[in-house]
Specification:
Number of helices: 8
CATH architecture: Orthogonal Bundle
Number of domains: 1
Number of strands: 0
CATH superfamily: MetI-like
CATH topology: MetI-like fold
Structural class: mainly alpha
Helix content: over 70%
Distance between the termini: 52 Å
Strand content: under 5%
Length: 216
């Protein structure tokens, strides 16, 4: 079946509008992942095994199970325990928790890359651990981590179509709805692929620019 350019032009504004939901879900989930990943990283670095071991086990479990199952669990199983969340909120939380387990390792590697002498200097200056972490350690650990974190955000962005499985009307779900109206799938799916490609390329270019600036 030939590609209908006029039909593609007609549905493009709807898809672009839906892509806003996709971008919003990505940024909100990334915010959750950044905060959650830092908390996990600090817990994993704890010398108390009663804290670090259970956190490690949970993180391993989440990394080892499919994201789709985790989304289904939050959306379909939690209501049995009296916890009901809107589809968009469920998707953001699921993405955030899933990626926080990967980002925790990025944080941990970044924190461990800071020379121990920096901690010793902070102790010598009578800094508390939270203050030393916030003012001395994190500012040195974060710059090398930024390119990796932004790459994870790009991967998360490409995972957002999975939210269509719980009725989030994002880019992929909108394309499915449009396609089912006239049973024409070539144009909407092609446009969705091109939109994801364009946004991913733009984000990748931004990452390279950021890497260049951080390397100076």
């Amino acid at each position: 079946m030939p590609f209908d350019i006029e039909y593609a032009r007609a549905i493009l504004p709807l898809l672009l509008k839906a892509s806003i939901i996709t971008v919003e879900a990505t940024f909100l989930a990334m915010f959750v992942a950044l905060i959650g990943g830092l908390i996990l990283a600090l817990a994993l670095r704890s010398h108390l095994r009663l804290i670090s071991w259970p956190i490690w086990a949970v993180a391993q479990f989440i990394r080892s199970t499919p994201l789709l199952i985790q989304i289904y669990f939050l959306f379909f199983v939690l209501p049995d325990f009296g916890i009901t969340l809107p589809p968009f909120t469920t998707g953001v939380i699921a993405l955030g928790i899933h990626y926080s387990c990967y980002i925790a390792e990025v944080y941990r590697a970044g924190l461990e890359s800071v020379p121990k002498g920096q901690w010793e200097a902070a102790v010598a200056l009578n800094y508390s651990k939270p203050r030393a972490m916030a003012e001395i350690i994190l500012p040195q650990a974060l710059p090398p981590m930024v390119p990796v974190l932004t790459n994870y955000m790009i991967v998360m962005f490409k995972d957002t179509p999975i939210l269509a499985s719980i009725t989030v009307i994002e880019l992929m779900q909108t394309a499915n709805i449009i396609a089912s109206e006239r049973f024409l799938y070539v144009e909407p799916m092609t446009l969705v692929g091109l939109i994801f490609l364009a946004m991913s390329l733009i984000a990748s270019a931004g990452v390279r620019i950021l890497e260049g600036r951080l390397a100076r």
